[in-house]
Every structure is written in structure tokens, then in C-alpha cells.
Specification:
Blueprint: E1 6-9, E2 13-17, H1 27-31, H2 51-58, E3 66-70, E4 90-93, E5 99-102, E6 105-108, E7 114-117, E8 120-123, H3 138-141
Antiparallel strand pairs: 1-2, 2-3, 4-5, 5-8, 6-7
Length: 146
């Protein structure tokens, strides 16, 4: 992982893109092509839609590669982004896809290693990810249905 982080702002909201986390679910550009176009550079046109539509689409990102903060709410320059609407972790089963966990959590590996995950984490349900326990998008290649 190279740790690239890019930010795009329209003055009201800043969208953060972490390409290393992307599982290429295509929800962003299929859901809001006026903003997200992988054929263009830069691929995010932050002025392509209003702030509310951008936030709604970014919240659909299953991997956490896309996140946001409202500029008026950002009080410091840390990497901590809090898009949570509640004080609890939300778990969502995606049709024919990963198990999505929304919220901050600590993942402890079989070997005892620990990894802090923020905002959104996609866990493999199909069993064939090469990045277990996390989803790497392989479920699409095997036509996982559940």
C-alpha cells in the first residue's frame, strides 16, 4: 500500500479518496456519474452535483475508499473523519457482496495482530478474497449469490 490520499472540495464538503481501499464496486460512478468518472483525470468533479447528492453517494461507498467531511465541521487537520450518524456500529449485508461494518472498530487477526478501521469496513462473505478477512471484490468474479 502506498498510502495515497486525495481531497476534493467544493467549499461546503471535502471528499477524501484513498485508492488503496477501493474494491471497485462501481457504486460511485454508476450512482453519480456527474461527479465520479473513472475515465477522466481528475476522476472526481466535486462541482458536478450539489453537496447533499455528493454526501449521499459517498456514504454508499462499500470499502471506505471515499469519505467526506463538512468543511464547517472540521475543527482540526487530523485524518479522523466521522461520518457516523449514531453512536453504534452498523452492520449491513450487501446483496451478492460483502458484509459492511460502518463505524470505528478494532480488527484482531488470528495471529493477535490488531488493525484499527474507521468509517467503513468490507468483510468477505464469499470465502475467496485474497485479502481475508476483508473483501477484495473477488465475489464478482465467482458470481457469488447470497
Amino acid at each position: 500500500m502506498n498510502g495515497i490520499v486525495k481531497e476534493y472540495t467544493n467549499g461546503e464538503v471535502t471528499v477524501i479518496w484513498k485508492p488503496d481501499l477501493c474494491i471497485h464496486a462501481t457504486l460511485c460512478w454508476k450512482g453519480l456519474p456527474e461527479v465520479f468518472d473513472p475515465k477522466k483525470r481528475p476522476w472526481i468533479n466535486i462541482n458536478g452535483a450539489n453537496t447533499e447528492r455528493i454526501i449521499k453517494q459517498v456514504e454508499e461507498c462499500p470499502s471506505g475508499a471515499l469519505s467526506f467531511y463538512k468543511n464547517k465541521d472540521k475543527t482540526d487537520k487530523t485524518d479522523k473523519i466521522d461520518n457516523a450518524k449514531d453512536d453504534f456500529v452498523k452492520v449491513k449485508v450487501m446483496k451478492d457482496g460483502p458484509l459492511m461494518v460502518y463505524g470505528d472498530l478494532m480488527v484482531e487477526g488470528i495471529d493477535g495482530s490488531k488493525m484499527k478501521k474507521e468509517k467503513c469496513t468490507a468483510f468477505c462473505r464469499c470465502g475467496v478474497s485474497k485479502n481475508k478477512p476483508y473483501c477484495d471484490g473477488t465475489h464478482k468474479e465467482i458470481n457469488f449469490n447470497d
